[in-house]
Design goal:
The chain is mostly helical. Helix content is 60%, strand content 2%.
């Protein structure tokens, strides 16, 4: 079985070579494997599980909770934005096992920090989920949109270029289907990806912004 490097990191690294800047290539590989990201991820998971307020159907409260997660990630990472965004992306996954199958690449086992199953269930139950006015009013809501948003923000922030927005969004959308969080591409996922890209670009520009500044947008069904 091919390693995680040849199956997952190398294809994205090659993409960055062609459309990203040199520093982004180095930063991407470094952050994917540095222990600090895993440490921040674990602390964020436990913060979500033990300190985040219970889920409500109040969108305003949900926005505040998402801002709290971002603020905690920044605190734990000592304001290293890239580290914070990557750790948050891992910490807000609403799945406990991630073994996606990508076209041409096959099955990829992502090197995520291990998590006790009981802790995972408790954490997932605390994830904000009624994010948009049309969020499904069921058990899961839009909890999967969190990884779309922060994952897109991370990749956009690290590449430092606006050449990748649609490419990044498509990659994450394919990952959503591969993770079996969705059975088909969802335009609402693409919308959330683009909000994340805007957030990542604003952070890259050094702006003092919060996730809610972008997630407050209203999705318009077409």
């Amino acid at each position: 079985m091919k390693s995680i490097i040849t199956r997952f990191v190398v294809p994205i690294f090659l993409l960055l070579i062609f459309v990203g800047k040199t520093s982004a290539q180095v930063d991407f590989l470094k952050k994917m494997f540095e222990p600090e990201v895993f440490q921040v991820t674990e602390k964020l998971r436990r913060y979500i599980e033990n300190e985040l307020p219970p889920v409500t159907h109040d969108r305003t409260a949900e926005m505040k909770d998402i801002d709290l997660i971002f603020a905690k990630g920044m605190e734990l990472s000592k304001k290293q934005v890239g580290t914070a965004l990557l750790a948050i992306s891992f910490a807000v996954l609403n799945r406990t096992d991630i073994k996606p199958t990508f076209p041409l690449l096959g099955i990829i086992t992502l090197p995520l920090p291990a998590e006790d199953s009981a802790d995972a269930v408790a954490r997932i139950n605390k994830l904000p989920r009624y994010i948009f006015p049309d969020s499904p009013q069921n058990k899961w809501g839009d909890s999967d949109k969190l990884v779309h948003f922060f994952g897109s923000a991370y990749l956009t922030y690290e590449t430092g270029t606006k050449k990748l927005p649609d490419v990044i969004g498509n990659l994450i959308e394919q990952g959503e289907v591969a993770f079996k969080l969705d059975t088909a591409a969802d335009p609402r996922d693409v919308f959330t990806n683009r909000l994340g890209q805007q957030f990542g670009a604003a952070l890259n520009d050094g702006r003092d912004v919060l996730p809610s500044d972008f997630l407050s947008a209203t999705y318009i069904k077409k």
